[in-house]
Amino acid sequence: xxxxxxxxxxxxxxxxxxxxxxxxxxxxxxxxxxxxxxxxxxxxxxxxxxxxxxxxxxxxxxxxxxxxxxxxxxxxxxxxxxxxxxxxxxxxxxxxxxxxxxxxxxxxxxxxxxxxxxxxxxxxxxxxxxxxxxxxxxxxxxxxxxxxxxxxxxxxxxxxxxxxxxxxxxxxxxxxxxxxxxxxxxxxxxxxxxxxxxxxxxxxxxxxxxxxxxxxxxxxxx
DNA sequence: AAATGATCATTA
DNA sequence: TAATGATCATTT
Length: 222
Description:
Belongs to the MutH family. This is DNA mismatch repair protein MutH. This protein is α+β, with helices and mostly antiparallel strands. It has one domain (about 10-220): ECO RV Endonuclease, Chain A (3-Layer(aba) Sandwich). The protein has helices spanning about 10-20, 25-30, 45-55, 105-110, 140-160, 210-220; strands spanning about 70-75, 85-90, 115-120, 135-140, 175-180, 190, 195-200, 205. Strands 1-3-4 form a 3-stranded mixed sheet, with helices on one face. The protein has a 3-stranded antiparallel sheet with strand order 2-8-5. The two termini are about 35 Å apart. The structure holds a DNA duplex.
């Protein structure tokens, strides 16, 4: 068990320790069994990295390192540093959203400071042989914040107006709204177009690839 | 080939 | 059910 880091510097040291190592090595060190594949265990890599960085496991809607104000995200990239997947940020509040602003939203809080940990994610590389890259801290620039905030406001307005079912993943410049649930039969309450209560699939906020790619590029082209 | 919509495991 | 950790796999 790795104790939670007491400072940002400690966290970054833990992060340096795992850089360059394979998932097999890290699983062995953690005493965690290698996942056979990610198909039936999609969060396995993220949970392995959490263990090594001393993140407190849990399903609370807050940052991984709340005392440091830092959220942890692993991000799959290929050998050229290309981002392979969109990034889930958090689930979307869709029922009682009155009084909710970008500034007091969970997504704003989570994105205030992110420790990005790139992990080799090409399917052609066997899971145990994939290498963990060098993690780095990131905070949104003014421009990036503007993009996120305006997408968020547009999406949340549609939700408040009962137009959630008309939102597609194509909406938003950098932020997407997509289903986020165990399967299609999971339902939660939302407002319909006439203000009535309807049942919809739960949604989550995702960062589009182009946005996370720019973050990765910014880091590795310095 | 890229992207959208769907899905898997686990905890509380 | 709702939150976390995400990637899968069919459609475009």
